Amino acid sequence: MTTLNIYLDRLSHNLKFLRSKISSKSELIAVVKANAYGHGAVEIAKCLEDLGITMLAVASADEGKILRKNGIKCNIIVFYPNPSDVSKIIKFSLEPAIFSKRMWVDLTFELKKLELNDFPVHLKFNTGLNRIGFEAKEIDWIKGKITDSSFKIKSVYSHLSSSEEKRENNFTDNQIKAFERIKSLFLSIDTSIKFHLLNSSGVFNYPECNYDWVRIGISLYGYANNIEWDKNLLPIAELTTKILQIHELEKDQVVGYNNGWIAKQKTTVATIPIGHADGIGRCFGNSNVPVWIKNKRAEIIGNICMDMFMVNITNINCAEGDEVVIFNKENPANMFAETGGSISYELLSSIGNRIIRNYL
């Protein structure tokens, strides 16, 4: 009844456009972490391989393992590996991002036990986001460890914290300058090392900083954190369901848990079979968030339930079993999310596994 339709031709469109925004000498890293932002990592990765992508990125070793077990052959970066996942990283030919001395030491120890050399790794540096990453002052420590590490450093990268904000942005400019200094220091060590800094918003806002590689995540799926940029992309997923039941309410009757909504007049209410277990969080209840029935706006009323929510259909001529659009190309996920005080990333990546993914 509830289906996430995923249009792979739109994925191809987005990839083609994003390629047009960067230098022909740069390559794209397609980010498929969090189950490809809720779209299905295996199916999306297979499509991306067919479209010529040679580097994917995931959050964890387990995400990489799933891709390998389903036949994905291209290189896979693990952004946030755990030191305890070293054996899994080695077994499934994953490429870990090393962001701390602890990870460096633990991985070196495991590789030496297995007598492995030139193992591909990526070094993550903190230039201002202050989430994870080596500090620039630790480069001398890294230099002293490289020879005895069994590593082959494939890339050095960082992450902009505010790449979607308007230019000129002093904070972002300082991050770029810091990364340039890091780049210069590593080029003096090994000229074959690649560099990357940009995420999806950065592709649009800082195209001059595309370096060797560019990481594209949310933009692959149709969103770029800016109304103007979004016009160039196509949301690849559409979430639809069907009306489960219709009720006629009298004035002062209530809807949902904790009497979350009270009818001010006679009201027709439809129950929709999707809830917070499916990714529709409590934030969407009672907040004028619309879904679409017969191309008309139907606002969510009452608190979101585990498996369903209710909408006001008083002015819509519809019946049980009629289609309900949660989001689609015309009413995209970012608009639905923002109406409820959320963002596209959170909504899409939260879509539950019991919702059928239909690839078209």
Describe this structure in words.
The chain is of the alpha/beta class and 360 residues long. The chain contains 12 helices and 19 strands. It has helices at residues 8-20, 33-37, 41-50, 61-69, 86-91, 101-113, 139-146, 170-187, 200-205, 227-230, 333-339, 344-349; strands at 3-6, 27-31, 55-58, 75-78, 95-98, 119-124, 151-157, 194-196, 213-216, 237-242, 245-249, 254-255, 261-262, 267-272, 290-293, 296-301, 309-312, 323-327, 356-359. The protein is elongated. The mean pLDDT is 94.
Distance between the termini: 17 Å
The helix tally amounts to 12
Strand portion, in percent?
Answer: 15-25%
Largest sheet geometry = 8 strands, parallel
Radius of gyration: 23 Å
Features of the shown structure:
TIM Barrel; alpha/beta; eight-stranded parallel sheet; 2 domains; single chain; 24% strand; 29% helix; 12 helices; 360 residues; five-stranded antiparallel sheet; Lyase, Ornithine Decarboxylase, Chain A, domain 1
